[in-house]
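Input structure tokens:
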């Protein structure tokens, strides 16, 4: 079952949120992503209690596939033109109020993190369609091919528990599709196979990996056998070396995802957070408005424990996982 919880800040909550963001932007001048994230967890405790409660329940009780926060008090003066390049790669990259809110909400779930193999380790990643990349499959910068079901950064053992997105612009009305593994019925034999390190889980084009992670011989299911977590990249699946029983078990999971998927169209200022251990997400092909009116989201993933992966980070201060 894929249940997406929708919440919308009320008038008084919106005022508290806006005042907090204004303080961060104008008083603290924290528009550098790294400086901001070092203080985001503390600032997040000033969000309305009702918002903090919703995020805690989402994190702790695993009842929802995702939490969708609508009509946030950001981008009130309009949205800048969609960038024509990956601005997070530039020196002096600054985050706007919508991205700050994404970091505040996400900090209620964990610590923002990135990968050295992904846009030079930037924690914030802009999702923008580019005309020259429109035919690249399984790419957040592509558009005319489906981006199939996948767990974010499924190939990596340090993948984050939560995926966060904020929408700057989506005039194309392109939906984000989410599907949760909760409720799947598998035989004991299917579980036995899927819990073993028998599967090739590859990275998507956004990662320029240096082959630090062995993508072969990984398990698709992990955690508790009665309520398993999932790690799969069906967008780039290769089962050439798997047995017929293993292939059938994997296809059963993919069929379940297709039957239980839900689509969400994000509007300007909307944030959505997906449980990246229990859910996959996808994006169907669409026709973008290339240029300044193109679809524009920003993504940050959040881990509940950066310390656990200290051996995969260059320093204590670094949020970028080596990949």
């Amino acid at each position: 079952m894929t249940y997406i919880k929708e919440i919308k800040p009320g008038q008084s909550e919106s005022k508290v949120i806006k005042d907090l963001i204004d303080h961060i932007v104008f008083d603290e001048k924290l528009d550098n992503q790294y400086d901001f994230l070092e203080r985001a967890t503390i600032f997040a405790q000033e969000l309305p209690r009702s918002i903090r409660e919703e995020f805690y329940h989402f994190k702790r009780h695993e009842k929802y596939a995702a939490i969708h926060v609508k009509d946030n008090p950001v981008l009130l003066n309009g949205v800048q033109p969609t960038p024509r390049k990956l601005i997070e790669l530039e020196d002096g990259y600054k985050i706007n109020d919508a991205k700050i809110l994404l970091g505040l909400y996400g900090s209620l779930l964990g610590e923002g993190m990135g990968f050295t193999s992904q846009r030079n380790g930037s924690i914030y990643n802009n999702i923008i369609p580019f005309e020259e990349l429109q035919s690249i499959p399984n790419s957040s910068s592509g558009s005319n091919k489906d981006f199939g079901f996948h767990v974010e950064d499924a190939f990596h053992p340090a993948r984050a528990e939560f995926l966060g997105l904020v929408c700057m612009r989506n005039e194309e009305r392109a939906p984000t599709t989410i599907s949760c593994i909760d409720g799947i019925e598998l035989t004991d034999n299917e579980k036995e196979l899927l819990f073993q390190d028998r599967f090739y889980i590859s990275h998507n084009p956004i990662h320029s990996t240096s082959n630090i992670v062995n993508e072969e011989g990984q398990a698709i299911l992990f955690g508790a056998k009665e309520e398993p977590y999932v790690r799969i990249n069906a967008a780039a699946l290769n089962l050439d070396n798997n047995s017929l029983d293993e292939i059938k078990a994997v296809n059963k999971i993919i069929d379940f995802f297709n039957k239980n998927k839900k689509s969400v169209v994000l509007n300007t200022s909307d944030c959505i957070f997906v449980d990246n251990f229990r859910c996959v997400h996808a994006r169907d092909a669409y026709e973008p408005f290339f240029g300044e009116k193109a679809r524009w989201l920003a993504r940050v993933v959040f881990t509940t424990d950066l310390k656990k992966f200290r051996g995969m980070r260059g320093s204590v201060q670094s949020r970028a996982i080596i990949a």
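The chain is about 25% helix and 20% strand. Residues 4-321 form a domain with the Double-stranded beta-helix fold (CATH 3.60.130.10).
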